[in-house]
Design brief:
alpha+beta, Immunoglobulin-like, four-stranded antiparallel sheet, three-stranded antiparallel sheet, 7 strands, about 20% helix, rod-shaped
């Protein structure tokens, strides 16, 4: 006979376990799909790939700017000065490698220049002595 006080429910929670199991399986599937999708689309590429970090100082003497490497990473690539005050907007800065090293380049006006190593801007400077 059916118990009319609790509508035939005996207080058994046996159906709760399968429902929680299904929810956990769906959650794991969604997380796994997101991780695989991130790798396939390359969203994790480039994380932690930063250019060199260096402290540079600048001094001007007429048409020549001297750059001194004060500290930080070695600038092992080809350093270039890039900007409007430079002929053809680009000039190599040789000798600028590790701390204590210096390099020079010529300018022909005022404006901003950037020191670029391997397509990464390491420092910027505003030429004002002209």
């Amino acid at each position: 006979m059916i118990d009319k006080t609790n509508f035939g429910l005996s207080g058994d929670d046996s159906a709760v376990s399968p429902v929680i199991g299904v929810i956990l399986m769906v959650a794991i599937t969604v997380i796994l799909a997101a991780v695989i999708g991130a790798f396939v689309l390359g969203l994790g590429d480039g994380i932690g790939d930063s250019g060199p970090q260096a402290s540079l100082s600048f001094s001007e003497d007429g048409d020549t700017v001297t750059v001194t490497h004060q500290g930080g990473d070695n600038l092992s690539g080809d350093a270039e000065a890039v900007g409007d005050p430079i002929d053809n907007n680009r000039e190599s800065v040789s000798g600028l490698e590790g701390p204590g090293s210096t390099g020079t380049f010529d300018v022909n006006g005022n404006g901003n220049i950037s020191i670029v190593v391997d397509d990464t801007v390491v420092a910027t400077y505003e030429v004002t002595a002209q």
